[in-house]
């Protein structure tokens, strides 16, 4: 029997907040769970689907498909619960020319910036020497291709 606590909070203005607390049996079954989310209707809808799944094996939780913010954050929550999550970046600062934090780039991707140009437009990362554009692309690919 083990206890898992997972908290995800994204953004300040457009706040998405997810909190999952569950007890896992020795066989990997979810025995008790509490899922709390704050977000728009799309997040609440996906949270309902997830709640229905939180009665069986943790490994059988189905990752939602799609590129919406809600799908991206629910995937992160499930992967964290399963112990499969890998941060899509290393280091606090992604763009050294513009001093743009990696977290800011990641949040831009989560909130819909799904090309390097759009991320650059929203954050200014990648708008000088361009050497960080590959890292921006990696974050986009990681966030969008977990399907
Ligand atoms: S490191 Fe990002 S533009 Fe130079």
In short:
The protein has helices spanning 41-53, 69-81, 102-110, 116-123, 133-144; strands at 2-10, 16-24, 30-38, 93-95, 100-101. With 147 residues, the protein is an alpha+beta fold.
**Helix percentage:** 25-40%
Shape: elongated
Rg of Cα set:
16 Å
CATH class of the largest domain: Alpha Beta
Give the strand order of the largest sheet, numbering strands 1, 2, ... along the chain: 1-2-3
Distance between the termini: 29 Å
| CATH topological fold name of the largest domain | Sufe protein. Chain: A
Q: What's the order of the H and E elements? A: EEEHHEEHHH
Number of E-type strands: 5
What is the percentage of strand-forming residues?
A: 15-25%
CATH architectural name of the largest domain: Alpha-Beta Complex
Give the number of domains: 2
How confident overall, as mean pLDDT? 89
Total DSSP helices: 5
Largest sheet: 3 strands, antiparallel
Structural class: alpha+beta
């Amino acid at each position: 029997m083990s206890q898992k606590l997972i908290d995800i909070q994204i953004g300040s203005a457009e706040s998405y907040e997810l909190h999952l607390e569950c007890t896992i049996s020795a066989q990997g079954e979810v025995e008790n769970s509490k899922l709390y989310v704050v977000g728009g209707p799309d997040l609440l809808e996906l949270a309902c689907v997830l709640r229905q799944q939180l009665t069986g094996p943790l490994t059988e939780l189905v990752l939602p498909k799609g590129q919406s913010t809600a799908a991206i954050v629910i995937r992160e929550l499930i992967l964290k619960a399963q112990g499969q999550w890998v941060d899509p970046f290393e280091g606090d600062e992604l763009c050294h020319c513009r001093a743009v934090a990696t977290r800011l780039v990641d949040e831009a991707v989560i909130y819909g910036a799904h090309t390097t140009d759009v991320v650059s437009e929203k954050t200014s990362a990648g708008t000088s020497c361009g050497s960080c554009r590959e890292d921006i692309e990696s974050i986009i690919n990681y966030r969008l291709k977990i399907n």
